[in-house]
Design brief:
Elements lengths: L1 H56 L2
Length: 59
Amino acid sequence: MGKDRQLNNLKKNKVQGIYRKIKQQNREAQNDNKIGTATVSICLFILLLLYVLNAIFDL
């Protein structure tokens, strides 16, 4: 009975460890996605700004 309990605890710890790794990877992926989205937004803003300045000053 004691060995069964130890085996179950080992399995449970292993599953929890795998679950934590997956959750951590998901968090990192979300952070990378936010950085990519911000970069694209900044680039589009700069292009729009240049387009508007070009239209105003006819550069």
